[in-house]
């Protein structure tokens, strides 16, 4: 018998909606708190920059129980994703669970002797109030709090009429017209904004990044959708995985020449297709050494604009502002009217008490999360959407289905606290020693091990099937409809 819980879901983005749906479907009472005035997280219109679109094809960026509309393009736009999320929330009654403009100011263990947490909630213009919850799902994800960058000379730059804004605030493309735009960062948002600034009539556009990185075009070689190369089991098996047996390690060593040739061939194809030599943007790192969540999609038009000079690419470290210029650490000056900081977001759970933060995050920033979802030393608490990848929605969906069963003690493989701690230590060693690229974003990146991660979650949940057989299972990308069927093979239950 599973008792109904009052569950607080913090965040109403992709992950929060997945968690709310999973808990409510099992008979729990759910409250979603969202500090913004709308649902959607990074897809909230107020946070989206012009021409934003997904990095993932629409069949990878969806929930298991709701496909995106057929009319949507292969890579949906920001407004389309927001409309999809809003429709999802309405269809499953999640919109009735929402408390918008409500922020979590703090949390502490309940003092009434019951398991759970007391959250201090502050509504817009209201006074803080304390509410008790039996379980809390943190769904703020990795794109919650914009990262700040303050450098010497910032005041004089602003006094000269310059503007400094985070990429999430670049909402009006007319801002660029006739002005010198400098974009700091090498992510897809950085290249998206640089391209948009050119199209919007900027006088000059410069992008500043530490060094060139590998970027993947939507269609590799102009023909093959990248999901059919980078998101298949066959490619995933070319990477050394965690907990590998001696036989698996031997097989990788024997296949090393073929694996090496595979990656060199992909690099050659990308160099030719994107004209990296002409752009002087050939990365120093081998592509296989850096495949993780920070490998961005190549914004259409970016490399041609660099090649013909419409976008100037500068490599190095930004040092300070000086009058109407940005000065690099090597002394190079870049004239600027607007500095767009495409430098990402701060990772963290600011409302968690310090004693619990220390249990959650190690000194080097690595998160201590079993399956990237739960920590045995943080009871009645779980995290959805911290298992980041290019299949973000599917990752959140499966994590939410895992978490509700974990919270209810209904996993087929319900782990003991010690088993969780042992697994966390093993995974941390893998990320720190065996594959450092797996340590990006606090070690919360699933890529390139999507299938390995999904297999573990589905086995824990108790699905009797979680793999497609034959060539489809080995050479096809993850399929949300298939995972809906796999989830249906897991034991059913409902709180009562």
Describe what this molecule looks like in 3D.
- With 496 residues, the chain is of the alpha/beta class.
- It has two domains: 6-145 and 346-489, FAD/NAD(P)-binding domain, CATH 3.50.50; 148-216 and 278-345, FAD/NAD(P)-binding domain (3-Layer(bba) Sandwich), CATH 3.50.50.60.
- It is 34% helix and 17% strand.
- A hairpin with a 4-residue loop joins strand 16 and strand 17 (333-335).
- Helix 1 packs parallel to helix 13.
- The mean pLDDT is 94.
- GO terms for molecular function: flavin adenine dinucleotide binding; N,N-dimethylaniline monooxygenase activity; NADP binding; trimethylamine monooxygenase activity.
- It is an enzyme of class 1 (oxidoreductase).
Report the major sheet. Answer: 5 strands, parallel
Poorly predicted spans: none
CATH topology of the largest domain: FAD/NAD(P)-binding domain
What structural class do helix, strand and pairing data support? alpha/beta
The name of the CATH architecture of the largest domain is: 3-Layer(bba) Sandwich
Radius of gyration: 23 Å
Helix content: 25-40%
Q: How would you describe this structure in keywords?
A:
20 strands; five-stranded parallel β-sheet; 496 residues; 18 helices; FAD/NAD(P)-binding domain; 34% helix; flavoprotein; alpha/beta; EC 1.14.13.148
Write a short abstract of this structure.
With 496 residues, this protein is an alpha/beta fold. The chain is built from 18 helices and 20 strands.
Protein topology:
Layout: E1 6-10, H1 14-25, E2 29-33, H2 78-91, E3 98-99, E4 102-109, E5 117-123, E6 129-133, E7 135-138, E8 145-146, H3 154-159, E9 163-166, E10 180-184, H4 188-199, E11 204-209, E12 219-220, E13 224-225, H5 227-230, H6 233-236, H7 246-254, H8 256-274, H9 276-279, H10 287-290, H11 302-307, E14 312-315, E15 318-322, E16 325-328, E17 333-335, E18 338-341, E19 345-346, H12 354-360, E20 381-383, H13 392-408, H14 417-434, H15 440-443, H16 450-461, H17 470-475, H18 480-488
Parallel strand pairs: 1-2, 1-7, 2-3, 7-20, 9-18, 10-11, 10-18, 11-14
Antiparallel strand pairs: 4-5, 5-6, 8-19, 12-13, 15-16, 16-17
